[in-house]
Model the fold of this input.
Amino acid sequence: MKDREQMQKVGIIGGLGPEATMMYYRAIISQFQQHQGNQTTLPELMINSVNMYQMFAWLEKEDYTAVANYLSQAAQQLAAAGADFVVMCGITPHIVFEQIQQPVPLLSMVTASCQHAQKLGLKKLGLLGTEFTMQHDFFKRAFRDAGIEVITPNSQQQQFIHHKIVTELENGIVKPATRQDFLAIIKQLQFEQQIDGVVLGCTELPLLLKTTDVALPLLDPAAIHIAAIVAQIFS
Done:
C-alpha cells in the first residue's frame, strides 16, 4: 500500500454542473476508502468551481477560445495549489480538451469511456447529452477511431434533451415524465438504428436513467471516469 506522500493529488474543475461536482466528490472519497479498506482516511483533492452558464454562453457563440482559456486558467490554478493531475466533471467541456493548456496531466472522460466500451465489445452506441456533445465531433471521434459507431437522436429530440438537462437535471430536478420521454427516445434508436448500448453523455443523466430502466448496456462516463481517477491517485 502506498504512503500518502506517494499518492497523486487530484484537482477537479467543478461547477460543470454543480450536481455532478458533488457526485464526483462523494464517489471519489467512497472508492478511495474502499481501496484503502479504511473509512477513516480521505484522499487529498481540491475543487475549482467555475461558472457552467458562462461556459454555455461562450459555446452558444462558438467562442471555443474563450472556453479553452477559461478552463486552462482553472487547471493552472489547481496545479498551483498542488494538484498532480486535473479532471473536468462534465463531458461538454471536453469539446476543447485538446486546446486546454495542461500544466499537469488532464485525465479525459471521453478516452476512459471509449476504452470501457471497447472492453465490453460494443459496436454501435446511442448518445444522449447536451446539444454541444451530440452535435459536435469531439466525443464521436474517439469512438469512431476505435471502430465504434455513435448515433444521436434527431434534431428535435436533441433540443428536447438539451432543454431538460439544462432546466431540470443541472438543478437536481428529476421528473418521472422526463424519464419516460428519454426512454422513448432510446427505444426509437434501438428500433431504427439497432444500437447495442447507450452513452449517458451528460454527468447528470444517471440521476434520471438507471440500468434497470433499459434492456441495453448503459455507459455512465462519469462513473467510468471516477474509477479511472481513483486508479490514477494510486498509480
Notes: The mean pLDDT is 94.
